[in-house]
Amino acid sequence: MAKYFDVHPENPQRRTITSVAESIRSGALIAYPTDSCYALGCQLGSRDGISRIRSIRNLDDRHHFTLVCQNFAQLGQLVQIDNDVFRAIKAATPGSYTFILPATREVPRQLLHPKKKTVGVRIPDHVVAQALLAELGEPLLSSTLLLPDDGEPMTQGWEIKERLDHVLDVVVDSGDCGTEPTTVIDFSEGEPEIVRRGAGDPARFE
């Protein structure tokens, strides 16, 4: 059974956030809110977490996992980024965008696209997600909480708890956070390519 935490969306309870972070460090797979929709998350190097996310979402090895970062200091350790791309990404973050970039050696091999050696990164504009990342002190390995047979991500924490109680360890509920996943921009070749149009306005990258 998954632990269920009801977290205030604007003033997240410190004790609760600390408890969730401790669970992640202990190997927990969580569902948590972001500025686009709910996501699955686990510790960066958790092979079990990666395997469970793939199983829940029925993902193949070409799926780009996302490393959710608190700030640019974390993001810069995970991906190779030149000045022009840095400026473009900086202007759009924090926000509902995921950026695909060449990974550094800091990123575990099992997270990389098998051919491109790229990974997705993002900095969310969400109070609860940011509080969790600050407490954790490291990026969170994430994937949109979209089940294989669903047309849209789930938006209610209680529904997530009800449907995925047997496969999750923790559900963090801070209310409805929308159904649109992030806009995905591929910068791996230097120029922006819009891979998915979502919650972030893609116009700045067209």
UniProtKB/TrEMBL annotation:
Q: Which Pfam families does its entry note?
A: Sua5_yciO_yrdC
Quote the SUPFAM superfamilies the UniProt record gives. YrdC/RibB
Residue ranges annotated for the YrdC-like domain, each copy included: 14-200
Q: Which Gene3D superfamilies match?
A: DHBP synthase
What PROSITE patterns does UniProt report for this protein, alphabetically? YRDC
* Top-rank lineage group of the source organism: Bacteria
PANTHER family in alphabetical order: DHBP SYNTHASE RIBB-LIKE ALPHA/BETA DOMAIN-CONTAINING PROTEIN, THREONYLCARBAMOYL-AMP SYNTHASE
Name the NCBIfam families for this protein.
Answer: L-threonylcarbamoyladenylate synthase
Identify this protein by name. Threonylcarbamoyl-AMP synthase
